[in-house]
Amino acid sequence: MSRHATDFHESVPADHVLNSAAVLFPGAFDQHGCPLIVFPADEQAKLSSELSQAEVVDFINYFLRLHNKKQEKESLVSVVADLRHASLPTTRVVSETLLLLERHKRTVHSVYIIQPKKKDAVKLLLKLLAPSKSLSACFKKVLLKEIPELSNYIDRSQLTASLGGYLVYCHQSWVAFIKEIDEFVQEFLSVVQRLPSCICTLQALSRQPPPSTFSELRHFCSTNEAKFQQLRRELGLDELLTRCESVVEKLRYPEREPCYQAMAGTALFTRTAFDMLQNHCRITAAVEKVELLWQQAFSKARLQLQVFQLREDALQASLCFKL
């Protein structure tokens, strides 16, 4: 069981970024097959008041990396920005965030912008995203006057109701799902980090020569049994397996858990289900390996103890028979 046994190698973005709903990764795609990032109209004020541009960029890059883990070819992201009622600060933040995304490598394929109704916001938008501005020319810019025009570029099944589509999306459920899976992953990685030390300890215990007398051997076995049980508790592998089984059960029957039901059918849900089944196999194999190492380490000592015990029992039986 290695650190690479899961597709999450880092913690998800901070809670205030996830919960803000100022930037979304709803599991939808445009006509080019690029995953969509959405800047909805409702929570745009938070882009300039609660979130930094770096946090938004990290959010987008995190989920794009997550999406690309299972892709044969790395995908770019496409962006939908509903700026109809955007203020000047919001317009600036969204525009500069798009440019920041492109600073180190090409990240954005297309940007679909519903233009601001305020003329000064439109002017600022065009200025910031003008072809002469650094890397802005790398992505395709589609400026739209009205929401219905989006359906010319993105199927309505991939758009939420506020964007003229019928994609069912509940942000609270999405956050709850992401966080529960991430909590499992962090526990998984913690166990992975402790596993080599556990194995080394078991191997060291196995090299201890067993005592030659019955009483010493009995103490040796009971003491090391207690050490093994403590080692196993500290490792947390059994608890991890139980938690993994719980998550797999929820993925198998999503209708029993609201946030899982809301996510069922999305690409993220399907990919998570596949990963969790693999993780379950890996964790089960690790549990079996630890148990096997324990059995191998002390099989000789336990066998000697059984021989001593049989001799003791035979001796007691012989004495009773003579009496």
Describe this structure in words.
By secondary structure, the protein is α/β, with parallel strands linked by helices. The chain folds into 2 domains: 3-169, CRAL-TRIO lipid binding domain (Phosphatidylinositol Transfer Protein Sec14p, 3-Layer(aba) Sandwich), CATH 3.40.525; 173-322, Methane Monooxygenase Hydroxylase, Chain G, domain 1 (Up-down Bundle), CATH 1.20.58. It contains 10 helices and 4 strands; from the N terminus they run H-E-H-H-E-H-E-H-E-H-H-H-H-H. Strands 1-2-3-4 form a 4-stranded parallel sheet, with helices on one face. Strand 2, helix 4 and strand 3 (108-114) form a beta-alpha-beta unit. Helix 3 (53-68) packs across helix 4 (88-101), helix 6 packs antiparallel against helix 8 and helix 6 packs parallel to helix 10 (267-322). The protein starts with 14 loop residues before the first helix and ends with a helix. The mean pLDDT is 87.
List keywords for this structure.
323 residues; alpha/beta; Phosphatidylinositol Transfer Protein Sec14p; Methane Monooxygenase Hydroxylase, Chain G, domain 1; 2 domains; four-stranded parallel sheet; 10 helices; elongated
Name the average pLDDT. Answer: 87
Distance between the termini: 59 Å
Approximate helicity band: 55-70%
Q: How would the global form be characterised?
A: elongated
Q: Which structural class matches the secondary elements?
A: alpha/beta
Percent range for β-strand residues: 5-15%
CATH superfamily of the largest domain: CRAL-TRIO lipid binding domain
CATH C-level of the largest domain: Alpha Beta
Q: State the CATH architecture of the largest domain.
A: 3-Layer(aba) Sandwich
Q: How are the strands ordered across the major sheet?
A: 1-2-3-4
Helix/strand order, N-terminal first: HEHHEHEHEHHHHH
Please state the CA-atom Rg, rounded to the nearest Å: 29 Å
Fill in the CATH topology of the largest domain: Phosphatidylinositol Transfer Protein Sec14p
Total strands: 4
**Number of H/I helices:** 10
Major β-sheet annotation: 4 strands, parallel
Total discrete domains: 2
Low-pLDDT segments, ≥5 res: none
